[in-house]
Amino acid sequence: MNDKAERFFQSIQNKQVWFVGLGVSHTPTTQMFAARGVPVTVCDKRSREQIGLPLCETLEAQGIRLLLGPDYSESFSGADILFRTPGMYYNLPILQEYRAQGGILTSEMEVFCSLCPCPLYAVTGSDGKTTTTTLIAEMLGAQGYKVHLGGNIGKALLPGIMEVEPGDRAVVELSSFQLISMRCAPTVSVVTNVAPNHLDVHGNMEEYTETKRGMVMHQDAFSSTVLNADNAIAAGFAPLVRGQHLQFSMEGPVANGAYYNKEEGGLYTVRVGEPPRRVMDASHIRLPGMHNVANYLAAICAVRGQVDTENIRRVAAEFAGVEHRIELVRQLDGVRWYNDSIATSPTRAIAGLRAFDRKIIMLAGGYDKKIPYAPLAPHVVDCVKLLILCGATADKIQDAVTSYPTYRPGRPEILRVDDVPAAVAAARAAATDGDIVSLCPASASFDSYPNFEVRGQHFKELVNAL
Fold first, then answer.
1. Helix (H, G, I), strand (E, B) or coil at 241
2. Peptide bond into 86 cis (omega under 30)
3. Which pLDDT does position 80 carry in this prediction?
4. 76/117 Cα distance (integer angstroms)
């Protein structure tokens, strides 16, 4: 039994616990709280019909009170404890007013991390964090540990907190929206990289960076911190490290951690004062793209001392990747179609373009997160034969590409379409035997889809219907 979690639930038996937003993490969490006798209220701007009548009826039958509709956030004064969904910005005036009145503002992931009885591996970054998180979980699982995988990766872990044992391992992906309010002290922290992202919410790069820095700042002397030596911002967190500091690099040797040897294509680990040890050849990694070699290096650092080399190699050979991340959808008439809907920023899109050994047909555009597209332009010019654009960022992407000094009209050719179905149709008409088509948006999905998963799923349906 998780004694700490048991004490927590006993302490809130008479508290009014409200949850803002009924989504992936809050639905099972509210049900678990209600089952333990906690008074639960759910606030959501959607109507009963939008949420779904069967779900609403199920929740109410479990004793959960629903406050629904556009006025849901007028006052949270009735809540002793308020759980915000990660999509609700922590610094909203209504939330800060609630805190000023003495309310407790928290989140599902924050409470899980505080109650977790086993070693906690936490991964954050602008790019690569989902794949790195999954790789760490796969490696630990291959070693025989019972692994609890969740966080921003899509699964709530707090509902299962009573089943987490001290000998297990918890692996979580943490976004800036989660970290902004957390004071988590992971056993192992990994920062894959830090680049401009989500500036439409955070407003500036300083606040966004601070969310990542905070995860490292709150570790203790018995922890390990894995930083990307090739990323200036992530590497700059090094003075904050309290425990063991490990680095990973695609550029060459590091003092302590893991690196890629460009000359002979091998992945190596190294400890302070010891010679490097070869783990495997990069060609043994099933996932395409050099950015995934970097993800493996980060994961290898994270599990050092916990996972045998043979299990690391086995995961490399068997792991086929995470959905929506350079995911091969199908091959049709000699054309390979890939779903890289996770590429919601220029840096992610760059990795997706560089994963292939030829110029591709790129489907891009979407919601504007106020990120500059100039860094994407040279990679589009180098790696794309046909750029098909739609969505709110289409103008910004086209302007960045056509303004790049080495761009020449038709290199790449640029087409404008109305939406993703039209983009798929245009790609189908243009692609010939040997071509690669990739949904690599370099933008978020919110102008047309609720999230990148729905966008990627729609793309796959369209491609499979060709």
1. coil
2. no
3. 95
4. 31
Q: Where are the domains of the chain?
A: 14-106, 110-318, 327-464
Contact 400, 373 (CB under 8 A): yes
pLDDT category of residue 1 using cuts at 50, 70 and 90: low
How many Cα atoms occupy the beta-carbon half-sphere of 140 within 13 Å? 26
Which residues fall within 8 angstroms of residue 429, CB to CB, at 6 or more apart? Answer: none
CATH number corresponding to 14-106: 3.40.50.720
Q: Could you tell me where the DSSP H helices lie in 87-204? A: 93-100, 108-115, 129-142, 176-179, 199-202
User: Which amino acid, 31?
Assistant: Q
**pLDDT tens-place string over residues 137-166:** 999 999 999 999 998 886 899 999 999 999
The arithmetic mean of pLDDT across residues 193-205, rounded, is: 67
The tokens for 297 are 């290096």
Q: Which amino acid is at 311?
A: N
The answer to whether residues 115 and 165 touch, using CB atoms and an 8 Å cutoff, is no
From CA 132, how far away is CA 248, in angstroms rounded?
Answer: 12
At residue 168, what is the residue type? D
pLDDT at 86: 80
Residue 87 has pLDDT above 60, yes or no: yes
Pairing verdict, β 384-389 and 17-20: unpaired
Name the CATH topology of 110-318.
UDP-N-acetylmuramoyl-L-alanine:D-glutamate ligase (3.40.1190)
Tokens of 228: 């990307």
3-state helix/strand/coil string of 253-266: CCCCEEEEECCCCE
Q: Can you state the angle between helices 290-302 and 346-354, rounded to 10 degrees? A: 110
Reference 209, options 187, 185, 188, 240; nearest CA is: 240
Cα–Cα dist 343/158, whole Å: 28
Q: In what order do the strands lie in the sheet with 81-84?
A: 65-68, 40-44, 17-20, 81-84, 104-106
User: Which pair of structure tokens corresponds to residue 77?
Assistant: 């004064």
Average pLDDT over residues 230-258: 96
Which pLDDT value is given to residue 202? 60
CATH topology of domain 327-464: Protein-Tyrosine Phosphatase; Chain A (3.90.190)
Alpha carbon 330 to its chain centroid, in Å, reads: 25
**Across the chain, which distance is largest between two alpha carbons, in Å?**
68
- pTM, 2 dp: 0.78
**Separation between Cα atoms, residue 180 and residue 160, nearest integer Å:** 24
